Amino acid sequence: MNSDPLKNLCEVADSFYRRGYAFGSTGNISVRIENQIWITPTGKPLNGLTPEHLSCLDLEGASHNEIRPSKEFPFHLAVYRQKQEAQAIVHLHSTYSVAVSCLESFDPENPLPPLTPYYFMRVAPLAVLPYFRPGSEELAAAVGRAAPSHNCLLLRNHGIICSGANLNEAVDRAEELEQTARLHFILRGEQVRHLTPDEIKELQKVYRF
Ligand SMILES: [Zn+2]
User: Fold this and answer.
1) Rounded-to-integer distance, Cα 173 and Cα 196, Å
2) 72, 175, 176, 178: which is the annotated catalytic residue?
3) Which among 185, 36, 204, 11 is positioned nearest to 111, based on CA atoms?
4) Would you state the pLDDT for residue 3?
5) How far is the CA of 190 from the centre of ligand 1 (A)?
6) How far lies 4's CA from each of 11, 45, 77, 91, 140, in Å?
7) What CA dihedral angle connects 138, 135, 171 and 178, to 10 degrees?
8) What's the 202 CA to ligand 1 centre distance in angstroms?
9) Ligand 1 (ion): which residues have CB within 5 A?
10) Per residue in 42-71, pLDDT tens?
11) CA–CA distance from 125 to each of 7, 19, 60, 137 (Å)?
12) How much distance in Å is there from the Cα of 197 to the middle of ligand 1?
């Protein structure tokens, strides 16, 4: 991990791209440094970025440099405004999570089955938000409402948003969510042993989610 937070953001973005979590010019990542939000730019893939490519905004959305932010910046600002402890946000259109978000029906309280303890330690509870046009104020408003009580959001027919007290935490959550979604599809049709209610209760006690 790079000690410069903006270089670190660029390295994380590059890593997501190289590992297939982000493709084309999809996905965006931001960090809060004091009252400034640094976010990946619009229309550029997440690979090969340097701090000079990052857009700087304040919480009201005013630009502090010449770089145009990702079109999805409104929901980043909504999370930072509503959730004081959020210092970093990862938004991805990663394939398996998006596949889950496109399923016609699932339990909105538990969109993914209880497969591993790590899902509970890093992701749960996962909020499901209805479909809104990407970049819209309606999406930002819905994200802002869900953010205080959830670190991870699944956007219907779109992707995921994970926030954290630092970038590593947001990254860990996004990776765990994507891998759980992947396991869900790998195991579909198999006889699966789920974690039992008692096992989940024990995790709840220890990890307080
Ligand atoms: Zn998106």
Assistant:
1) 22
2) 72
3) 185
4) 79
5) 31
6) 10, 21, 22, 21, 29
7) 80
8) 35
9) 134, 159
10) 999 999 999 999 999 999 999 999 999 999
11) 31, 26, 28, 24
12) 34
For residue 22, the CA-to-ligand 1 centroid distance in Å is: 10
Q: How far is the CA of 130 from the centre of ligand 1 (A)?
A: 14
* Angle formed at CA 17 by CA 16 and CA 21, multiple of 5 degrees: 60
Angle of CA points 162, 180, 129, to nearest 5°: 45
Q: Is the pLDDT of residue 80 over 80?
A: yes
Q: Is the pLDDT of residue 97 over 90?
A: yes
Helix (H, G, I), strand (E, B) or coil at 150: coil
- Residue 191: how many CB atoms within 10 A of its CB? 5
Angstrom distance (rounded) from CA 145 to CA 130: 13
- Residue range 131-188, pLDDT digits in tens: 999 999 999 999 999 999 999 999 999 999 999 999 999 999 999 999 999 999 999 9
Q: Catalytic one among 11, 96, 118, 131?
A: 118
Superfamily of domain 5-207: Class II aldolase/adducin N-terminal domain (3.40.225.10)
Q: Which of 81, 70, 39, 178 is nearest to 134 (CA)?
A: 70
Active site residue 72: yes
**Residue ranges covered by each domain of the chain:** 5-207
- Residue 106 has a pLDDT of 86
**pLDDT tens digits for range 14-30:** 999 999 999 999 999 99
Tell me: pLDDT of 1 over 70.
no
Kindly give the distance from the C-alpha atom of residue 2 to the centroid of ligand 1, in angstroms, as a whole number.
26
